[in-house]
Description:
By secondary structure, the protein is an alpha+beta fold. It is built from five helices and ten strands, in the order βαββαββββαββααβ.
Amino acid sequence: MGKVIIKIKLTNLFDLVVQHRELSKAKPREVEVEALVDTGATRLYLKSSVIRALGLEKLHSVISQTSNGPAKRAVYEPVRLEVQGRHGDFDVVEVGENVPSLVGRFLCHIWTLWWTPRTASSSPTRSMEASRCARSIEPFAREGLGVTFADFSSP
Length: 155
């Protein structure tokens, strides 16, 4: 199996609320990063440096099941995640700098997207299997729409 890397835009949600309520004229903190689409992940996992750049504060901790066994990870304030014109608000789980930022299967399920290979267009669907999510992004990679599709050959 291969890997799918997408460009995501992240904005500090608290900053957006403060700006919307006109409590500050400061521009919301935001960053654009590449993230690995991981259909086994259930959350949004960001590197420590990205969390610092967004100015997020720790809320609590969770135990994550990883390939190396259970790991205690910090959960931070929510961010606005934007991918190809769609957005949602998600809590952030911290990962180390040696791990890529991860976008879990919620991306497909929450926005219920399915990309049609012939037209490379997105359309809503009622259900989506997480295992098909990563493969469904392939047409966007071919069209150069902000997705890098790499290493999709079997070993």
